[in-house]
Amino acid sequence: MKRLHLISALSAWLILSGCVSFDEIVKEQMKTDEQRDQERCSSYGFRIGTGGFGNCMLNLSAQREAEAANRRLAEAMSDIHWGPDDKERSFMRSGDSRFPVCSATSEDADLDVSSGRWYGKACRAQ
């Protein structure tokens, strides 16, 4: 019987925990980040309420924002589809040993069916 009550309580908790809004989750994450930042700045020797502590908090927040921006940029760059200019660049790099030779296994490589050569944004056509 105790087991049934425990399962019922756990099930109710799981169902109700799904009712949390996205905004509440974001606020909770921000609060967690702020608490983590406070602990970090305190561990550096800054005391709450001082200018140094405030600067430390601002720097950590700016660092987190920069990391988020870099992640967004990397995601956006991975979604870019490469056009005809990239084919030309790849063919122009044919003799440049700084770039690997394009092949079917090269990331984002395509086959130029007219010439039978592989090309890509980060490799050279063979």
Automatic annotation (TrEMBL):
Domain of life of the native organism: Bacteria
Keywords: Signal
Signal peptide: 1-22
Protein name, UniProt field: Uncharacterized protein
Organism of derivation: Phyllobacterium salinisoli
Taxonomic lineage: Bacteria, Pseudomonadati, Pseudomonadota, Alphaproteobacteria, Hyphomicrobiales
